[in-house]
Fold:
Amino acid sequence: MEQQPLVSVVIPVYNMEAYLEETVRSVQASTYPSLEIILMDDGSKDQSLAVARRLAEEDPRIHVYTQSNGGVAAARNHAISKASGIYIFPLDADDRIVADYIEKAVEVAEKDSSVKCVTCRAEFFGARSGEWKLPRYTRSLLARKNMLPASALFRKSDWKRIGGYDETIIAREDWAFWIGVLKDGGEVVRLPETGLYYRIRNYSKRVSDRSLKKHVIDVLNQKYADFFFRELGGPLRYQRSWSRVINFFSRLIHPMKAFIYSRYAEMGNWLFQLPAHFEEEGVCIYKGRNELREVTIGDKTFVVKSYKRPHLLNRFVYAYIRPSKAERACRYAHMFREKGIGSPEPVGYLTRGHTGLFDKSYFVCLKSECPYTYRDFATHTFSRQTEILRAIGRVTARMHDAGFYHEDYSAGNILFRDDLPEIQIEIIDLNRLSFGKIGLEKGCKNFERLPGSDEMLSVMAEAYAEARGFDAQECLTLIRKYVDEELEYRKKKAQTV
Structure:
């Protein structure tokens, strides 16, 4: 007979000596044979721990652990960390389950890996009786309502994936948990039979205090901003059922647009929070017209660029006519990489509006591994200088062959790395691109902001000409001309300031 997957029933225990044995007996009566019962005493002040240990002596499937009082989320996390089961089934220490609940739940989960949660019909008992009328599950409803009971079957791998129960939230930790498990997809199956009896005591905890509700909503918005934006068009509001309507009108005043590439989907929530926490993120590496900050998340380092709020006309243009600088930078970096032109990997962008107009935008990319810029030729001597310059010439040619003209092709926007067998070149600040056929003169003019010695210009001109099938001497003549004109222009401009 094929061995059935182990189910770990985890029961946090805090001052439950009057009810714990009844709860455990209901689990022991389960028709599902492959299970363990983990009792996690959360610093009980009554005889709960003694009851737990007595029950464990009677049944080798029961394991008892203790911790200092940390709340139900911490107790569940600690218990699950000790669990050996593929599946986890949380149960409150004063509730009961029907004998075949776990068996039926495992059968459903084993048939379909897309099922992330198996729950059931439930009834109240104790100070109140009757059916617990839980609504039919949808992600949109989950965004507004705590509508899945904590006592439902899920995979331990999903608990690991989302980092367990949030121990910072004072109440509704199960709601936060289910959002984490289900926000990016997965099915919920509710068994048609009653499987859970949920005890109501006269002093059962209710989230009714205004400050507590605000705390719960604030934590959820901070943790799952991307989910609420997707399902509700903005944050979860204090009047939860009105969230979508409130957010609709809010977007008319404060429009927001965001995009993130799928491989960085886990950073979606962080991206949505950028306007609120940009100033505290990482380390500032440049602050001028725009601001760049270097941020490390996990094992990766990113660069976040905050663009200066534009003048009034462009605030209208970026709101209704033209993509923002951040959106263009993100989109164009992707286009470069598709054409084999080096540029730091884009992560995503976010734009924010105010009173119907564009306000601010943010672009996020992976930090480049290139430590130098073309500007460093003025202060450094590179042993592979000729190779580097030839690589710049070839990359520029590839950019032009693809129909990309960089309107800000300057010494600070060409990065390179020279410690690899092949010189690595990356182009940045891509929000100012134009597109179309680029001929000899226009292509050579793109070098105008790359000053250098005659020898340097000659090397770049030769590599550029070879790659595009132009005459090398003609390229050099044009590049020298445009570089000199740009230097003269900047000299005169500096004198007039």
